[in-house]
Amino acid sequence: MKKAVKIISMLMIICITMTAFIGCTSKTESVKDTGTTKPEFIKNETADKLTVLDPVGNEVTLDKKPERVVVLMNSLLDLWYMAGGTAVARVTGKENVPEAAKDIEEVGGMGSPNVEKIVSLKPNLVILSSGMSSHREIKDILDKNNIQSLYINYLTYNDFINTLDLFTRLTGREDIFNTSIADIQKKVQETTAKVSKEKKPRVLILFATTKSVQCELPIGLTGDMVNMLGAENIASGSPVEGATKVEFSMERIVEKDPDIILVTTMGDADKCKARVKEDIESNQAWAGLRAVKEGNVHYLPKDLYVYKPNARYPEAVENLAKILYPGVFK
Amino acid sequence: MNNSSVLKDIRIEESEKSVKNRAVYRITVLAVLAVLCILAFLCSVSLGALKIPVRDVIKAIVDPTEDINRQIIWNIRLPRTLVAALVGICLSLSGVILQGVMRNPLAAPNIIGVSSGGGLAAVIILIMLPDFYYLITPFAFIGALASTILIYLLAWKNGIKPMRMILAGVAVSSFLGAGINALMIFFPDRVHGVVGFMVGGLAARTWKHFYLLWPYTLAGFALAVISARKLNVLMLGDDIATSLGVCVERTRLFFIAISSLLAASAVSIVGLLGFVGLIVPHMSRLIIGSDHKYLFPASALFGAALLMFCDTVARVVMDPVEIPVGIIMAFLGAPFFLYLLRGGLKRNVEN
Question: What's the gap in Å between the CA of A6 and the closest CA on chain B?
Fold first, then answer.
């Protein structure tokens, strides 16, 4: 009898642990859907309708040139304005809000938008972020009210280009995509081309503090740019590929001993700098790293490397290239 | 459950002819726990993301020449293991004291507002003032103590009734918890650092944290063990305790103060690992009985061993990614606790 209880409890432990990991993997898959390429996500296009495959795998048909648009994420709002669109409402916040949209109506915070207010504005289109659970909850209500809505998953540079492609088709301003956006792409390509033959540095991207070791993976914003520039992210190839940031083993960092450490922070980079530096240097585990000894720890400003750089992508990529390949940009 | 079983325990103890046998059993249990604790320590220091042979581990500890093994063992694993042990001791002692003082089996550090107060303070820093991230530890400490004091004052009405304190604790905790949730909802883009704190983790804890923590642990442990007898008396009920010459009010305040200091120091360093404080005391009580003279050292050893062991698992399972120890704790600890609760070791305790 006692043995049976023992066995059952062991099985329980195993089951619970297993479910935890299964939970992890399925999450991974849902995020993996992001890397849709252009021919894949535009399913059908006519003069006034556009059918797209959204990041959660549904085909959605939208009316072109929507008049009243609500955008529930400010970095997407910025892209929408770049694509020649206008909006009637946005969410609260200051970062990435285009000048022209400063005074439009606000419908609550990004994490808690007010559905009633959104519906009462009678929008033709609501632009949502598929990464936000609160946005997923709203989607149903919008559908029931016959309000068209569109999920966007915007994490990387590719997403940036694809989203602009999609937005310019919706606004009917493909000319913008072919001129100014093409210009951005060209500048970014020039930078990546310059460094393509260089020796690849090994990089660690650290988030915020030394209190935890949160490292950014290649799918994160800065991780993606590091990847575009051909550098090797020492945190890549970790078992949870879907996440943008993971808690990384300090021991592995010491073992891999990166050439360059990039620090992104939610706070003001300049103010944090001295403090993070002191923290790192007073901590023997960090201080022993080659990058720290040789002064190769760089602090990245949050407006380009935590919030989306959008139109300033060329600048963000170039600044990063200067840090990663100081020899090329003298 | 606790109350009656404790009384029963004490009565059994008095009527027991072989008191001596009981003492022998308890000392044996303590010895076993001590061995477990040492094993967990050795496991934690010698296992990790990198496979380092035991011989090199010993060499790295003894020989201070700088190389990669020394760097990993001495600067990463050893301080982290020690911090885990201290946190385990702090939280489980805090839990034992609270369950005793409140005479309630559900009492834990979060009941006296340590988790919610410390949590809110930390979340305010993490979300509203990220520039001042280095203030998280002192702020969480102050927040934890402040909310305990608040709960104590709110529950005061010609003295403290444990039940009133627990209810006040639940109310204040949910009030502060609402503050945490509100901040997380209003600033969804900044939640990243917060989640780690809420779950509780030991990543990147170093000697600095160890130096911060050990004085509290040592003082708390010493005070608790010295006054174990008083807590035993207090558990007989207010009237009996008073008739035995114990100043109930003052003693209760004294114990609450110790336990909140212990829990606040632990929470400010590793985040909200509240679960340890609820479960370890019960596990220890199931194994060793309710005499605090033995229960204090037993839970301290058990808490330290459990946390060191779980942290080892947290580091190794998904290498190179680390899982916050709070999650491992709940996955491994809860089923084990249920096993004990269902009578896994009942025979021993009742003997």
Answer: 8
